[in-house]
Design goal:
The complex is a heterodimer of chains A (about 290) and B (about 260).
Chain A: H1 17-32, E1 38-39, H2 53-62, E2 68-73, H3 80-92, E3 96-97, E4 106-110, E5 123-127, H4 141-149, H5 156-167, E6 178-180, E7 184-186, E8 204-209, E9 214-218, E10 224-226, E11 253-257, E12 264-268, H6 271-279
Parallel strand pairs in A: 2-3, 2-4, 4-5, 5-8
Antiparallel strand pairs in A: 1-9, 6-7, 6-10, 8-9, 11-12
Helix pairs in contact in A: 1-2
Chain B: E1 5-14, E2 17-27, E3 32-37, H1 43-50, E4 58-65, E5 69-72, H2 78-86, E6 89-92, H3 96-99, H4 106-116, H5 122-135, H6 152-164, E7 170-174, H7 182-199, E8 202-206, H8 210-216, E9 219-224, E10 227-233, H9 234-239, H10 244-251
Parallel strand pairs in B: 3-8, 3-9, 6-7, 7-8
Antiparallel strand pairs in B: 1-2, 1-4, 4-5, 9-10
Helix pairs in contact in B: 4-5, 4-6, 5-6
The chains are: A alpha/beta (about 290), B alpha/beta (about 260).
């Protein structure tokens, strides 16, 4: 018998049923209080912290045998992190996997929201390194919890103030803080601020931080507001180019260095989106 | 004239040791109250009880809030008390590092309280921060520097600016001149005296330095072993001390 293909070696999706129940309870609580960080008893996973242990545990708790899983890392389906997590669930859960955003029912992501709009019945699972948006201001957990419970979020703007005073504009480009439903301050995980407006979406969004042992969530169509100043409004900026491969204008781009003489190109960070557009006949400057 | 703050019977024990016991006094708007005494006499305990940092075992602190009139701050809910701490009250720590964010620029430090009470216009915040740095004699060119690059005296002045920017009515000061050399102390005291007079601030100043209260305080309380042993007008207490301990305290000051 080939190792890992049998359900006798692992419980479905690696974690035991009691652990999954515990995580599901945390997820339900998180959905009931959007943006609130629910503590949970994070387990040791067979991968290092920082590689998505939180996201993997959340995915394991929500996966069913009928699900189709997609895993992306910085928008790409084919990088180490994405490949290894996808393989992990192929082995331990035996679920179908895909790279197509529209075909997936559960999408685990690191640092991006797919370009293709998500729909109801889909679940987007984020990997979160530091769930506490107030951490840089206040190192004490007791104090940040108190700040959340008392809605003391004024100091959050200090970070943006510092950006403007130093750079002339709000230079925070990723992990841009948001306020959820006018209540909880939330770290959207290190997604580019370009993706912030997409967070008001029909799909369920779950956030798992394994090392920090926190889960939080956004139910469908939750109001998510990015912080800003009246005279320095929020700007979901991106590189001012079309994709060199598929010519897309409105997609988030990666800068790729092509030689050691200053040559570079801008291409879609969402590889699935880019490939699909090229298959449909769209062409960029260098196709 | 209505009282700004009325303190009744504040008592705090640390286990079986007395922190401070049965302290009562009234504070009028625009008045500066000095609290002196040796180390361990309960001055800082008293100040922390009044400012809501430490829950006393007994007593009440009635504060004349802008909205509801006199209210016992010890019975307030925590959000209410914290709101008071950001608007009507200010707390100047002995060590500026306790009261400042050392990894945030001077402008950000001053602006924080404004943002905490809802200011969301960068230009306005910046303008007010600049103006306040000027008032505490810190050059405008230092607005984007971190307090770690400031001298001790500048840090203390920055802490004062950060506290006064929202126009509080009552300032708690815990040894505001502690750890500064005498010439810097003198300038800081001069600045404080000007600000207190200009803004009509009330203040409660805890110190062991009699020169500080002589310059700043209208009235004085002398504490020993957790009890107030003598209280009265500053000049009266210092020039004609009645209690044996006060006499000792006054006679211990070195004359140069």
């Amino acid at each position: 018998m080939e190792w890992g293909n049998s359900m006798t070696e692992y419980n479905f999706a690696y974690l035991d049923e009691q652990t999954k129940r515990m995580i599901r309870r945390a997820i339900l609580k998180g959905l009931a209080i959007p943006g609130y960080q629910v503590p949970f008893a994070s387990r040791e996973m067979p991968m290092p912290y920082g590689w998505g242990t939180g996201g993997v545990q959340v995915s394991a708790a929500v996966l069913t045998p009928e699900d189709t899983l997609k895993v992306i890392d910085q928008g790409a389906d084919d990088t180490t992190n994405a490949v290894s997590i996808r393989k992990f669930f192929e082995r331990t859960a035996g679920v179908a996997t895909t790279t197509a955003t529209a075909e997936a029912s559960v999408i685990q992501t690191r640092h991006r929201i797919p370009e293709e709009p998500l729909v109801e019945d889909q679940i987007l699972v984020y990997q979160v390194p530091i769930p506490e948006p107030l951490r840089f201001l206040e190192p004490r957990e007791t104090e940040t919890r108190k700040m959340h419970s008392l809605e003391e979020y004024g100091p959050m703007h200090v970070k943006l103030y510092e950006d403007i005073s130093r750079h002339g504009h709000i230079a925070t480009a990723y992990a841009y803080p948001v306020q959820v439903e006018g209540r909880y301050m939330m770290d959207p995980s290190p997604i580019p601020k370009f993706d912030n407006p997409k967070m008001e979406m029909p799909a369920i969004q779950l956030f798992g931080a394994g090392r920090e042992q926190r889960i939080y969530a956004l139910p469908p169509y939750t109001k998510v507001v990015s912080l800003d100043f009246e005279d320095h409004p929020f700007d979901p900026s991106k590189a001012p180019h079309p994709c060199r491969l598929c010519g897309a204008e409105g997609a988030y781009l990666d800068e790729v260095i092509t030689d050691d003489e200053g040559g570079r190109m801008f291409v879609c960070s969402d590889t699935d989106f880019c490939e699909r557009r090229r298959a449909a006949g769209h062409e960029g400057a260098q196709a | 004239m209505t009282l700004l703050m009325s303190v009744r019977d504040i008592t705090k024990y640390y286990g079986r040791y007395i922190g401070c016991a049965e302290v009562s006094f009234d504070l009028y708007p625009g008045e500066v109250m000095g609290v002196v005494g040796e180390s361990g006499s309960g001055k800082s305990t008293l100040l922390n009880c009044l400012a809501g940092h430490l829950p006393p075992d007994r007593g009440e602190v009635l504060f004349d809030s802008r909205v509801d009139g006199p209210k016992d701050t010890l019975k307030m809910s925590e959000p209410e008390r914290r709101m008071l701490g950001r608007t009507d009250w200010a707390f100047v720590h002995q060590n500026a590092r306790d009261g400042l964010r050392m990894n945030v620029s001077a402008g950000g430090n001053v602006g924080e309280r404004l943002m905490a009470v809802g200011a969301r216009n960068y230009g306005d915040i910046r303008r007010q921060a600049t103006q306040w740095l000027g008032r505490v004699e810190i050059s405008e060119t230092r607005i984007d520097d971190r307090p770690t690059t400031f001298s001790g005296g500048m840090q203390q002045r920055l802490q004062i600016a950060r506290n006064l920017v929202t126009g509080p009515r009552l300032v708690f000061m815990d040894e505001p001149t502690g750890g500064l050399d005498v010439s810097v102390q003198a300038r800081l005291l001069d600045l404080l005296r000007g600000l207190v007079r200009d803004m009509g601030l009330s203040a409660i100043i805890v110190t062991h330095d009699l020169a500080v209260v002589r310059l700043l305080a209208d009235r004085l309380m002398v504490m020993k072993d957790g009890h107030v042993v003598e209280a009265g007008l500053t000049d009266q207490v210092l020039d004609d001390p009645q209690h044996a301990y006060t006499q000792l305290l006054v006679s211990s000051v070195l004359q140069v």
